[in-house]
Amino acid sequence: MEINLKEEEIEQIVQDVAALYGYDFSGYSKASLKRRLQRLLTLDNFHSFAEFRHKVTTDDGYIGRVVEEISVNVTEMLRDPSLYKVIREKIIPLLATYPFIRIWHAGCSTGEEVYSMAILLKEAGLLHKSLLYGTDINPTVLEKARKGIFPVSAMQQYSKNYIAAGGMADFSSYYTAHYSLAKFDESLSQKMVFSTHNLVSDFSFNSFQLIFCRNVLIYFDKPLQARVLDVFDSSLELFGFLVLGAKESLRFSPVVSRYRQIEGREKIWKKIA
User: Do residues 177 and 142 make contact, with C-beta atoms less than 8 angstroms apart?
Assistant: First the structure.
């Protein structure tokens, strides 16, 4: 039986989680938050809101599960290959002009996007002078990202994405398969730094020429979207690039006047002021 959470119950859980554990979900889309919490209640067989709240407030170990469910972790390597083809052909040649390249993958989940970018940089001969930062609110997924181990079952799709994105090598040369798992080469991961970062409350921590934040803003309400975009704006160097998800845009945001969307349909903006 599905429990239909009331608005005040959702607000109560958001307050509890913020007060007890420091995770602030108050700026998340209410519809998305309700959907994710109700899914969690069903998956973990809670019979009432009171039972769920008791678990959240008394079991320190359960908060990881709550955060993992609310912060949607859906990702794949070279997702939307046409986007990566544009990055390969138009963005990377510009990055090559910098003495050192810094890239931020915000909301990186288990890190497939970070490894994707590392492969493109390696093929362009730029990985040696690059540092890729992968951040997420969820420490559990970051631990997976650090290991660089993904299911072998996903490699066929990732290989197709790689070819469609303009890859010329054998994709399997980037990982070693062992039974059901594929471990990506450490020459990629040694240029990565993974750390927790909360887009809701944390600020800029470095200066970057390229920032990825794909399919994260869609789960935030408008005021939180504006706050996060301001953090990205203060983190991005002049003439740097911001990459968003397919359903996300800078249009109508407070920072839009400082950006120009590059040609084509891809959600890539160049900072021009």
Answer: no
Region class of 30: left (phi > 0), else alpha (psi between -120 and 50), else beta? alpha
pTM, entire model: 0.89
Reported residue count of the chain is: 273
The domains of the chain, with CATH numbers, are 7-70 (no CATH), 81-149+186-271 (3.40.50.150)
- Closest to 131 measured CA to CA, from 41, 181, 192, 212: 192
Query: What is the separation of C-alpha 217 from the centre of its chain, rounded to a whole number of angstroms?
Result: 10
Q: Would you call 146 helix, strand, or coil by DSSP?
A: helix
**159-188 per-position pLDDT tens digit:** 999 999 999 899 999 999 999 999 999 999
Are 249 and 221 in contact, with CB atoms under 8 Å apart? no
Cα dihedral 14, 18, 20, 21, rounded to 10, equals 110
C-alpha torsion sign, points 75, 76, 81, 83: positive
Is-contact 148 79, C-beta < 8 A? no
